[in-house]
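Lab notes, practical 5.
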Amino acid sequence: MSGSCRGRALLISENAPFPGDRRVWNEARTLVDAGWEVVAACAAAADRAQPASETIDGVEVHRYPLRPAGGALGYAREYAQALWRIRRLVRQLQRERPFDLVHAANPPDFLLLAARSARRRGARFVFDHHDLTPELFRSRFGRGGIPHRALLAIERRAMRSADVVISTNESYRQIAIERGGVNSEDVFVVRNGPDLERFQPVPADPDLRRGRRHLIAYLGVMGPQDGIDHALRSLAALREMRGEDWHAVFIGEGEVRGEMEILALELGIGGSVEFAGWRGDDDIRRILSTADVGLEPDPPSPLNDCSTMIKVSEYMAMGCPIAAYDLKETRVSAGPAAAYAEAPRPAALGRCVHELLEDSERRRQMAQFGRERVVELSWQRSATALIAAYQRALGREMAAVGTGARGASSAAGVSG
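Output from the prediction step:
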């Protein structure tokens, strides 16, 4: 920890284990570098053993057991259990010393409720808007009605209860202002950019191609809304176009992984698709630095149309050309570093991949643009915005990090 302690911050993440949630991990390290005492509360990983408590790079991590659930009722049970466990953990942790600030990453949107005891002791609240929960519900379950309206009300309540809202892009920022009713000066854009001091290309590893000519990669969560089925069906279409001169690696975990492994076999591409699970940064850099194309298969939906996928900027940082559906925020981030399918169908995405594999010069140009563009999307830019948001929440100056800028008070000057 550098310099004198700036305060004690609690970061809460239910949606992904720490440090697996790359955004929360970058936020925590930024705060440690700025001189904060940082405590993280999160669910333990369901697929591997993790200690209940440990310190990682200066971040004090506390985990609680939680079994992820599918289905609307399953999610209700999971979130209720998480709320209870986090509430107990917050009370236990603040016996040592009160928190100056509680920073909760959605979903669910009501995590700040678990820290009401910290609010009563003077903590400021930051709502970290990772996902549009009402749109996420509709993407997963295909319905609106009373549950959707209830989620809209919960989202608005969460935003209005926070001192500051941080959003992943300008689309989310506008939703916080217009739908959440938050003052524009209290909403900051903190993008999901890679840390370019750590996330740099490495030499390609030909062994990853498993004897094939090309490597195709996917990096990210495997949930119902993430388009893993689109990715696999696009690869089945690709096989019809060019045979199997390629190998694909899917990095990540999620509730549909088992179903997708079965789907790959049913499509007849099981021998060409490798489900690698979550990997550390070293393996991710090696795979993406070797890949000829990175898949961004998130299909159009009310959620995906205005969301920024962190995989996009991570592909760009590694110089990996992208094949994607034409979503608003994907095009904002990637521009010509991505090739966009002419229609939101797997066959069109497969055609997009095929055309990229056929044109090495185009891939070279896309890789160069991506590496140049990602500097504007990097975590180094986002770190400055995060510090500005904390300054706003606390109403006092903090040590600046990254670029050395300080004192910004609205998102207008810090968005990437």
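Observations recorded by the TA: Confidence is low (pLDDT under 50) at residues 399-416. The two ends are 28 Å apart (CA to CA).
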